[in-house]
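lol so apparently i was supposed to do this last week
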Amino acid sequence: MTAALSIKDMTVTFDGYRALAGVSIDVAPGEAFGIVGESGSGKSTLLRAIAGLNHFDGGSLEVHGRRYSGRRRDPEFYRTVQMVFQDPYGSLHPRQTVDRLLLEPLAIHGFADTEARIARALDEVGLGSGFRFRFSHQLSGGQRQRVAIARALIVEPKVLLLDEPTSALDASIQAEILNLLEQTRRDRNLTFVMVSHDLAVISHMCERLAVMRDGGVVEEVSVEDLRQRAIGADYTRQLLKASEGFRREAQE
Ligand SMILES: Nc1ncnc2c1ncn2[C@@H]1O[C@H](COP(=O)(O)OP(=O)(O)OP(=O)(O)O)[C@@H](O)[C@H]1O
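anyway here it is w/ adenosine-5'-triphosphate bound
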């Protein structure tokens, strides 16, 4: 089967600094794949290079069998691959209405029947038509993230790149947004690549994950293996221990 996403030996260099040092990952259609690792390990750089927001200077990228190089992408790529960012305050223009924010991607990609699509998208993310003419600065963080998700889904993508999509939100809202994402993945058979510093979030959402360190992949494991502690790399074990310790402290 053709992979939804196939990355081979990808490198990214910023002014002589190797931020990504030869990363290879294959993600199957409909799969949820996680990327974890300490701060500065290259998680966002990898996601941004896939999205075309960063250049990549070596290796290759294929999305559903189509090959892309460097930073240039065709319009079909930008429809097929959508990204949801960590900060819904930064990623949505505050002075635009939800209607405008949803209309924009439809116009860019030449979709007709915009009325019906906007209504459907708002329902899908649990906001409903009452939110359509509100300004984004009038919304809560969770509501904004729902609009950001609607904006990504409205052009019918196949792959969602999720960069810490809930880490700017309160714990109770985080769970709601994760459940919404999981529901849309199942309903639309979407492929997810999700970056998080939180192993618990990745374990909840994903089937497999890559552990990154110093711009490289230390290990790829299934979430099932993680649960069974069937881990090869010491670094993954340390990460798991740190996240369990953190959760225990948080519960005390
Ligand atoms: N545009 C850039 N110019 C120069 N260096 C960069 C740039 N973007 C990232 N880097 C560097 O590349 C390395 C990887 O950064 P990246 O943001 O990908 O890490 P990360 O794993 O996502 O970290 P965090 O969890 O803190 O977001 C870091 O050392 C960072 O300083």
